Amino acid sequence: MIAFVRGEVAALTLTSAVLEVGGVGLELLCTPGTLATLRPGHLATLPTSMVVREDSLTLFGFVDDDEKAAFELVQTASGVGPKLAQAMLAVLSPDDLRRAVASDDVKTLTRVPGVGQKGAQRIILELKDRIGPPVGGRVSTPVSMIPAWRDQVTQGLLGLGWSAKDADNAAESVAPQAGDHPDVGALLRAALRSLSKA
């Protein structure tokens, strides 16, 4: 098991980061909020979770240990695989997820693409006794000085399966919230909320 990866960020894509570790480039699948904290050429340390399948070994990278723990826990609910777990964390912070489960908030969980009402009820039923209370940690990671926040939000939405037109419209709808120091993770969550209402 690979618990974390530390190295220089060699490349960023819509859905992943490549970190160079000992001359080897390791690709980590990450949420848009995690990707927004990384810069090519800078050193980064990301907690990781390895998912082993018959035909693949996939590393998922996280902004912190809390996000990693939430990712691993939600997969213990039936019907939740790593891709859906990652989508949940792209929309909800770990504390938002804990609050939604603890308060039987089906509506919040169904904002995640791929989670319907029955799926949300099953997740709540199976995780309620194990997910714990909100820890009061990171609500969203502040990201300062991102000139291309809109492009990152749009690309994040495209990576989650939305059409280019929907992604552009959602990014436009959250533009007034960007301010001087846009928080891409928060803007992406706001964009996803606007799409789920449409």
TrEMBL record:
<dbReference type="InterPro" id="IPR003583">
    <property type="entry name" value="Hlx-hairpin-Hlx_DNA-bd_motif"/>
</dbReference>
<dbReference type="InterPro" id="IPR012340">
    <property type="entry name" value="NA-bd_OB-fold"/>
</dbReference>
<protein>
    <recommendedName>
        <fullName>Holliday junction branch migration complex subunit RuvA</fullName>
    </recommendedName>
</protein>
<dbReference type="GO" id="GO:0006310">
    <property type="term" value="P:DNA recombination"/>
</dbReference>
<dbReference type="InterPro" id="IPR013849">
    <property type="entry name" value="DNA_helicase_Holl-junc_RuvA_I"/>
</dbReference>
<comment type="similarity">
    <text>Belongs to the RuvA family.</text>
</comment>
<dbReference type="Pfam" id="PF01330">
    <property type="entry name" value="RuvA_N"/>
</dbReference>
<dbReference type="InterPro" id="IPR000085">
    <property type="entry name" value="RuvA"/>
</dbReference>
<dbReference type="InterPro" id="IPR011114">
    <property type="entry name" value="RuvA_C"/>
</dbReference>
<keyword id="KW-0378">Hydrolase</keyword>
<keyword id="KW-0233">DNA recombination</keyword>
<dbReference type="GO" id="GO:0009378">
    <property type="term" value="F:four-way junction helicase activity"/>
</dbReference>
<dbReference type="GO" id="GO:0048476">
    <property type="term" value="C:Holliday junction resolvase complex"/>
</dbReference>
<feature type="domain" description="Helix-hairpin-helix DNA-binding motif class 1">
    <location>
        <begin position="107"/>
        <end position="126"/>
    </location>
</feature>
<dbReference type="InterPro" id="IPR010994">
    <property type="entry name" value="RuvA_2-like"/>
</dbReference>
<keyword id="KW-0234">DNA repair</keyword>
<dbReference type="GO" id="GO:0000400">
    <property type="term" value="F:four-way junction DNA binding"/>
</dbReference>
<dbReference type="InterPro" id="IPR036267">
    <property type="entry name" value="RuvA_C_sf"/>
</dbReference>
<keyword id="KW-0963">Cytoplasm</keyword>
<feature type="domain" description="Helix-hairpin-helix DNA-binding motif class 1">
    <location>
        <begin position="72"/>
        <end position="91"/>
    </location>
</feature>
<dbReference type="Pfam" id="PF14520">
    <property type="entry name" value="HHH_5"/>
</dbReference>
<keyword id="KW-0067">ATP-binding</keyword>
<dbReference type="GO" id="GO:0005737">
    <property type="term" value="C:cytoplasm"/>
</dbReference>
<feature type="region of interest" description="Domain III">
    <location>
        <begin position="149"/>
        <end position="198"/>
    </location>
</feature>
<keyword id="KW-0547">Nucleotide-binding</keyword>
<keyword id="KW-0347">Helicase</keyword>
<dbReference type="GO" id="GO:0006281">
    <property type="term" value="P:DNA repair"/>
</dbReference>
<dbReference type="GO" id="GO:0005524">
    <property type="term" value="F:ATP binding"/>
</dbReference>
<keyword id="KW-0238">DNA-binding</keyword>
<comment type="subunit">
    <text>Homotetramer. Forms an RuvA(8)-RuvB(12)-Holliday junction (HJ) complex. HJ DNA is sandwiched between 2 RuvA tetramers; dsDNA enters through RuvA and exits via RuvB. An RuvB hexamer assembles on each DNA strand where it exits the tetramer. Each RuvB hexamer is contacted by two RuvA subunits (via domain III) on 2 adjacent RuvB subunits; this complex drives branch migration. In the full resolvosome a probable DNA-RuvA(4)-RuvB(12)-RuvC(2) complex forms which resolves the HJ.</text>
</comment>
<dbReference type="Pfam" id="PF07499">
    <property type="entry name" value="RuvA_C"/>
</dbReference>
<keyword id="KW-0227">DNA damage</keyword>
<comment type="function">
    <text>The RuvA-RuvB-RuvC complex processes Holliday junction (HJ) DNA during genetic recombination and DNA repair, while the RuvA-RuvB complex plays an important role in the rescue of blocked DNA replication forks via replication fork reversal (RFR). RuvA specifically binds to HJ cruciform DNA, conferring on it an open structure. The RuvB hexamer acts as an ATP-dependent pump, pulling dsDNA into and through the RuvAB complex. HJ branch migration allows RuvC to scan DNA until it finds its consensus sequence, where it cleaves and resolves the cruciform DNA.</text>
</comment>
<dbReference type="GO" id="GO:0009379">
    <property type="term" value="C:Holliday junction helicase complex"/>
</dbReference>
